[in-house]
Amino acid sequence: MSGKRIFVLNGHPAQTSLNRHLAETYAAAARKAGHEVRLTHLADMEFDPDHGFAGYAQHKPLEAVLQAFRSDVEWAEHMVLTTPMWWGGLPAKLKGLIDRTFLPGWAFDTRNRNRIGMPRPMLGGRTARAIVTSDSPDLFFALMYRKALLRQIRGQIFNFVGMRPAKTTHLAPVGEANAGTIEGWQRQIDALGAAGR
Length: 197
Prior knowledge:
The protein is of the alpha/beta class. About 40% of the residues lie in helices and about 20% in strands. Helix 1 (about 20-30) packs parallel to helix 6 (about 180-195).
């Protein structure tokens, strides 16, 4: 089996974090298994995260780091995102990255819609995985919040632009995780990286 082209984005805005460790764990395991990997840390990217306009009639010129991010997405056969859940959603800088780059004409086509009126996705031919950390225990997250952030990432971001199948992994609660728990998560992510999933 030949290796995949995998783009890993650590979506935590801090320089050091569990998400960075998980992204690096995934990338190292994937490389060791023969996959070609590109790894980007959101903390290293300097850009204006504010789309700044109503609708899509206008948009700001993309900074070089945003152009490079798009190139990595285009290059990839599989995209992996690690992110914390903050206040039930994505960190503001990560959301800004998506707002600035996943635009019509590149990520989706508003002039070419499907039978139910949704824009045609333009990033098909790729699969995706989101690895989400949170303090909300998995059972509570499922029963009380119906895994809303996981459904948003999978359905309203990855699937919306054509990345299918898109899978999610939820690791929690991180606030109480001891060394043994983190080692278990690392083994889980290591296996995903080796398999390119």
